[in-house]
Amino acid sequence: MIYRGIFKTVFLLFCLVIIYGCNTAPVPPEVKETEKQENDLWRAGAEIYLPEQYKAYRTALRLGKDHLIEVNQKFILFRRYKNVQQEFRGLLSKGSDLFENLEDLKQAKSAANASQIAFLQSKIEALKNVTSLMNEGRLSRRQLVMAELLLNEVKLMNERGRYLDAEKKLKIIPVYTESAREAISPILDRYSDKAQIAKWRTWVNEAIETSKERGIYSIFVSKIDKKLILYKNGSPYKTYSIGLGKNGFHDKLYAGDLATPEGKYQVIKKQFRSRYYKALLINYPNEEDRRQFHTAKRNGLVPASAGIGGLIEIHGGGKESTTYGCISMENNQIDELFKIVDIGTPVTIVGAIEYVNTISSAIKDL
Predict the structure, then answer these.
(1) Which residues have a Cβ under 8 Å from the Cβ of 118 and sit 6 or more positions away?
(2) N or C: which end of the chain has fewer CB within 10 A?
(3) 194-354 maps to which CATH number?
(4) pLDDT per position as a tens digit, 72-94
(5) What is the residue extent of each domain of the chain?
(6) What is the pLDDT of residues 21-53, one digit of tens each?
(7) Please, what is the Cα angle at 167 between 165 and 168, to 5 degrees?
């Protein structure tokens, strides 16, 4: 009888478990949805872009999972998931807000990167345009090549959604653009200096007036235009394209600086045979050049062992030929000029005579 009673009790309990177990609510689907949401947020970079919000979300999620474990540890008859379900619904809402904030932030960073990319692209193009005008742009152009390579890399990163990586790279590019600008800043300063340009204009006006008054030829060289203009009786007579020294846009200070001198000179010798076909030798250095050289040497701007140099010519060999400070022309043009001018012909070499020139105009874009 005792065993029969125990058996009935166990049987009844088993039936109750089956009945109530079938009627007990299953684990809320929000739990699975939250697990997927957490993974999606991680893959979307929430930990990187919104670390504090994501950390708060993860903390709330861990707490929710602890509550779920507590409920699961109860006897099946006493498991109730209502509170857990509400908690996980709240987590899903927080995660949804986090996704929205994440997307907004990404779009903002993408737009900011795109704006900076456009700005830097414009600056690089402006610097390239300026450096193309001068021989001294070699170093700048090397820096700009590096800047462009990095900018192309940044564009690709931004297109692929690597916004933070693009943001970091964007901070490096100005190092190269500023270095490029710094390399040509002495020239930019000189060709936008109104006092310097006024000085050059005075030299040219005096040379033209002398040509007019004395009825002679006069040579005018404009570095910025890379032109040699032959005046006759105060009026332009012939115009030739020319080449300059490797550092031709600088004023010559000493031997070996590869710069083309600026000043008022004259032809002192006609060389029918020279290293570069024919040549007109000018009287560099003149007194002003010597004064400038000694001042620069006292100020430490000239190497202690350097001399002032000389042998500056207007010569043939082609306007693209290598020169170390001279003015080069095509052979047929030096032939023509050679026949016209005589020893004593004035030669005026300046950087520019217009206050608004290709270099000063380009500076506003830098």
Answers:
(1) none
(2) N
(3) 2.40.440.10
(4) 999 888 899 999 999 999 999 99
(5) 194-354
(6) 444 568 899 999 999 999 999 999 999 999 999
(7) 65
